[in-house]
Amino acid sequence: MTSDEPSEVTPIFDRPLEERIRAYKRLPEHPSLPRTAEQLVRDEIMLDGNARLNLATFVGTWMEPEARALYSDAFDKNIVDKDEYPQTAAIEETCWRILADLWNAPDAAAAIGTSTIGSSEACMLGGLALKRRWQHARTAAGLDTERPNLVMSSAVQVCWEKFCNYFDVEPRFVPISEEHPTLDGHDLASHIDERTIGVVAIMGVTYTGMYEPVAAISAALDDIHQKTGLDVPIHVDGASGAMVAPFLQPDLAWDFRLPRVHSINTSGHKYGLVYPGLGWVVWRNASLLPDDLIFTVSYLGGEMPTFALNFSRPGAQVLLQYYQFLRLGHAGYTAVQRESQRVALHLAHGIDAMDAFDLWNDGSDIPVFAWRLKAGHTKNWTLYDLQDRLRMHGWLVPAYAMPDDLADVTVQRIVVRIGLSIDLAEKLLAEIRTQVRYLDRLDSPLPDDANRSGFHH
């Protein structure tokens, strides 16, 4: 090595890659020392926000040291390789059978499910099963299979819009309103016809955290069935609530206790308390997942069934889910979710006590709540301005417009996850009060930023 080549003793910020990396956006011509590359990446991500103060995301940002150690020991496992990692595959099945039991499947042994990269993939698999079963029924009856539609709330998560776009299904949105802030069965009949493959019910609306009353939706569909003969199933998008309701609202009928519920998905990486990205989807029984959606493939010396949009994917998150199931059990999950809800209620009541705001909901469903600026409070600032002021102090608390018929309503939302303590919540409330006092002292409106980026759910 010549004297001008870097070595471990060369000061890290005096190494050539530090000087060259910004000159172009292409693969560097020469390798660098590991520590140099590591430092460059660390310098980049240092500009990210603090995950613990990110109250916009539902995704988990904290796990115990033992889980982190397990993660580092398992991140090289490819869960699709069931021949090489048969025990990881067995643990995956154990996890979704635990969920089938948790969600009151009539016979957990007869249920079927799978892990996914996240709940978006899980939703698409649930939607595909609905579409394919509808197609089979139409074909058996000698009818065409054109123009299927799926009915859902206008406050649905964007993954359902993607599903409809990618898989040629017409989305039919039931608008939410002040009177009907969730899909609750109202006006459902006007959206359903013989081409409806199913209805999506959300356990924890992304905009506000509110549960959609699945039992009321099911009752409305029962009435439609009785009057028209149309027998429409439900898929429950329980991305968040499916890992909250069994512990905080165990008597609430939203799951497989309702015969019309065919399938349920959840995010292991949300209130399943696992790092991203992990989702789950479970069907009431195997007959509801059409066989022609399941592929049997030869891979690395073995034959295996697979039903997924992705192929190779990490197995470590599945092991983390199993760790959490073993670590917490029913009582532990109840304690964790109850504490998150306690913090959410504390924050909601603190914000409700401020003259500037009206609560939209208070976190009594999942530990998520939203509020809006009180009518007539001010013309000089908006919730977007409060969002910006809080971001300056490290807190990410998003503001955004509600959908469709409520598009003129702007709300701000907090997601409480494990790791947000009462102490941190008090600090956040103090910061909100401080920034509201600052904004209330304005004697004219703040400039409107036309390029302001909206919050993306």
From the N-terminal CA to the C-terminal CA, the straight-line distance is 52 Å
Please state the CA-atom Rg, rounded to the nearest Å: 25 Å
Instruction: Outline the biggest β-sheet.
Output: 7 strands, mixed
**Assembly level:** single chain
By CATH, the superfamily of the largest domain comes out as Type I PLP-dependent aspartate aminotransferase-like (Major domain)
The residue ranges in which pLDDT falls below 50 over 5 or more consecutive positions are: none
Walk across the major sheet and give the strand order: 1-7-6-5-4-2-3
How many strands in all?
13
Overall morphology:
globular
CATH class of the largest domain: Alpha Beta
**Please, what is the average pLDDT?**
91
Helix content: 25-40%
What is the CATH architecture descriptor of the largest domain? 3-Layer(aba) Sandwich
Descriptive account of the structure:
The protein is built from eleven helices and 13 strands. It folds into three domains: 12-48, no CATH class; 67-324, Aspartate Aminotransferase, domain 2; 337-440, Aspartate Aminotransferase, domain 1, CATH 3.90.1150.160. The chain is globular. The termini are far apart. It is of the alpha/beta class. The protein has a seven-stranded mixed β-sheet, with helices on both faces. The chain has a four-stranded antiparallel β-sheet with strand order 10-11-13-12. 35% of the residues lie in helices and 14% in strands. Keywords: Decarboxylase, Lyase, Pyridoxal phosphate.
